[in-house]
Amino acid sequence: MIPERWHQLKQIFQSALERNPSERSAFVSQACAGDPALRSEVESLLSSHDQAGDSIEAMAAEAATELLADDRAIVGKQIGHYQVLSHIGRGGMGEVFLAQDASLGRKVALKLLRTEFTRNEERLRRFQQEARAASALNHPNILTIHEIGHQDSMHFMATEYVEGETLRQHISRAPMTLGQVLDVAVQVASALAAAHHAGIVHRDIKPENIMLRTDGYVKVLDFGLAKLAEPKTVDSGAPTLLQVETEPGIVMGTLSYMSPEQARGLNVDTRTDIWSLGVMIYEMAAGRQPFEGETASDVMSLILQKEPLPLTHSLPEVPGELERIVRKALRKDKEERYQTIKDLLIDLRNLRKELEIEAEMERSLPLATDRMPGSGQSTAATAQTISSAEYLVTEIKRHKRLAALILGMIIVPAAVWYLLSRSSSGTKEATTTLRNAAFTQLTDQVGPEYFPSLSPDGKSLVYASYASGNLDIYSQRVGGKNTINLTRDSSAGDTQPAFSPDGELIAFRSEREGGGIFLMGATGENVKRLSDFGFNPAWSPDGKEIACADESIVTNPAMRWSSINRIWAVSVATGEKRLVATEGAQPNWSPHGYRIALSGRLRPGGRRDVWTIPAGGGEPVEVTKDPAMDWNPVWSPDGKYLYFASDRGGSMNLWRVPVAENSGKVLGQPEAVTTPSPYSAHLSFSRDGKRMAYAQIISRANLQQVGFDPRRETVTGQPVWITQGSRWANTPDLSPDGESLAFDSQGSQQDDLFVIRRDGTSLRQLTDDIHRDRKPYWSPDGKRLVFFSNRSGKWEIWVINSDGSGLQQLTDTPKEVTNAVWSPDGTRLAYRNYGSSPSIIEIGKPWRDQSPEVLPSMSDLSDWYPWSWSPDGRKLAGFKVGVAGPEGISVYSLESQQFEKLTDFGLRPIWLSDSRRMLFQDLQARLYLLDSESKKVREVLSGTPHDLGNGVTISRDDRLIYFSLVTTEADIWLMTME
């Protein structure tokens, strides 16, 4: 660094120190305008000053000496296997350089410990502690440590290189929206939760230590001040962390973000990070720090003695709940503060979810008002309705606490409810039925609660939950909070409960003893098997029969396991069964016993419709027939309406249609019955029709990576997030060069294909239209992707170039085809024929010249899904699906033209590089390794209440596994109508 440059740097640095801490960032931005490198140097010096506590001149002189030496001696130098490219920043204890990892060809951030620190044993130990502390934490929001080492007298740490800006830079550049504030806060809290669980306290949470990646991901940096607290649990397989204790009375951290106990030099614990995060949330929301003074002693006095101004002083529209959260995080007595970061994280997530629901309600307002002229109301009535609706939205905005609106059961006027329902018919019946509708949340446990069933009197309900770590059925009084686990004695999954018409019995699906429909008393007693098959049991009105289906639908109505999905009626007294319908799922008996409603089969192109059929069997009658996904039909207790879930309004919400119960004739158009939920399903009415329970479901699918040791056949480390957003990331496939992942995004009215770097950067969308494009699979040369799509009107195989060009249809079959996989030499494709045996075609030939090789037919009523072609080209691995779901992994030998069954469970197998072993999943979110020769199965990734999504993929060296993890939060809500 030339002397003139250093003089400029020193002058700006000293001028910044003379200003109020809240004014420094703006001053530095202005003084360094047009020179980002200079700004980075000044900010690094300011950060070092805050941390070191040394005299300004001494620190500046020290920094000057190092700056002069670093730029001349370090840049261009080889340190280990890292080539230093440029100087990018400075921390409290070291310089940070951009470097190239020569062995892996990737960019890294290389942190070098300042030379005088290596002569200080305590400081050297602290540097090593930073590396060990951070490297022990495998979390998507914590900076990944690649290596710690030394060369000669130089100690270094290599970390991932994060492209983006610090939170401090972002705050100084532009104000943050409430959504951005909560998104950053949730990600930082999630990172701290992982650290605290491992016994690590960060002790220096501040905007300078938070990096915002260009894609919105947050990274928490600099565990250099971390203090290792006593871990709650000891993992014998984990490395032991060297603990470096700080003597009481030594103040460490950055003053403006210090907790009172930290500022006083007292012992600190995880609650000091909660305080610092509270300060940071306040600053993000208000645009200023909560404790601002002209001098350091002024700031410390405010921290110890004064309460900050309310957030509303700077931001009048701030939600009251955010004000409460911040004030609780900033309690000066740490015993009154949040006691765990997880509690703070839960509140932040709940607030974010409430605001998402509120935004959905606000978006529904213009949609509703657009349709008002067709409702038949007078101009005055229309104006009154709109005014009432706008008042409701204004109140929601003012309170910003939607939960208070809902849990307090504030009554929605009939006109407002009509407006929000977006009904197009405007019938008197709709207005009368939905008069004074109110919504109450009944469950709020962590994790999903599914399949509510109201007792006939509407005073209690049963539902399925993972609260015990296993799917069990719980009972709860409506309006109460005490729950009773009715199936706690069963280790098998129990779900889909349904009260009998008299409320004395509960029918449910259980996986115990091979699976089937079971019965028990209303309080969980006298469990007995009714059938060895069936899902979604539904009672006949007289309680003598139970209808059930071969197919199970939980939250994804687009899922279809088999071409054979039948509806049965089973006698409660004898267990005798009779066939009601040859196609359908989710049966629901009409209140007078005339008909059974059902979710119809998936139509060409992947959509469902609602049907009814005579209870004794006969011709089905179509209720809906349109492009929407319609499912989960439930009769109103008076038999006049059929309610169902549909995405026809843009999101999955509730609708109803008038139907003649005795004939099934549709008497009108579908009407919206909009709930304050982004996704509603699993309906259940009380006998009088005044109460309806439903599940509010929020599901997300994101990609994860986890290490794998193919020799030991074990997973190494913890899974790391690649994506973390609301986009549904599914069916990942790793490119041949191991650098990119292709996946599809389902869960909306269109399914599209995406490609992303395996580190979560450089997301590219390949398709973007109304069609459904699914399961991309890389060609062996990495230039193209094969997938299946409904863009021709039914499912066919298509191909597209990796840059999104060259879209081409490959098949044109009489029936639908799915699940195409490449041969390892890239000359052939195998695919599944719906309802028949798979076929193989040659690449490069037009369809008219193809003579597909049809694999031998499978026995019974099963389908076989080809999923992976062995690297040696000799075998296809796939899974067999029968009427009740997956029936196990099989291999087809192209030499012997024979199938060999390897397991009696599992699905979606993927070959390892040895063409002998493969990974596969089960329906309980577990991952297994299978030896195709010995048929030995080994579990390698334990199950959770979450679904692994559709498929896994593995690197060519078998050392990295990628998969989609579906996380679901579902709560039970109650709609009460007059």
How would you describe this structure in keywords?
alpha+beta, Transferase(Phosphotransferase), domain 1, Neuraminidase, six-stranded antiparallel β-sheet, 16 helices, 57 strands, 32% strand, globular
| Uncertain regions spanning at least 5 consecutive residues | 51-72, 225-252, 365-433
CATH superfamily of the largest domain, please? TolB, C-terminal domain
The shape is globular
Q: What portion of the residues fall into strands of 2 or more residues?
A: 25-35%
Q: How many domains would you count in the coordinates?
A: 4
Strand order of the largest sheet: 1-2-3-4-6-5
- CATH class type of the largest domain: Mainly Beta
Cα-based radius of gyration, to the nearest Å: 31 Å
Measured between the Cα atoms of the first and last residue, the distance is: 78 Å
Averaging pLDDT over every residue, what do you get?
81
Largest beta sheet, briefly?
Answer: 6 strands, antiparallel
Helical stretch count?
Answer: 16
Alpha-beta classification: alpha+beta
Quantity of strands, as a count: 57
What is the CATH third-level topology name of the largest domain?
A: Neuraminidase
CATH architecture of the largest domain: 6 Propeller
Please estimate the helix content. 10-25%
Structure at a glance:
With 978 residues, the protein is α+β, with helices and mostly antiparallel strands.
Descriptive account of the structure:
Helices cover 22% and strands 32% of the residues. It is α+β, with helices and mostly antiparallel strands and 978 residues long. Strands 1-2-3-4-6-5 form a six-stranded antiparallel sheet. Strands 12, 33, 34, 35, 56 and 57 form a six-stranded antiparallel sheet that branches. The protein has a four-stranded antiparallel sheet with strand order 13-14-15-16, with no helix packed on it. The protein starts with a helix and ends with a strand.
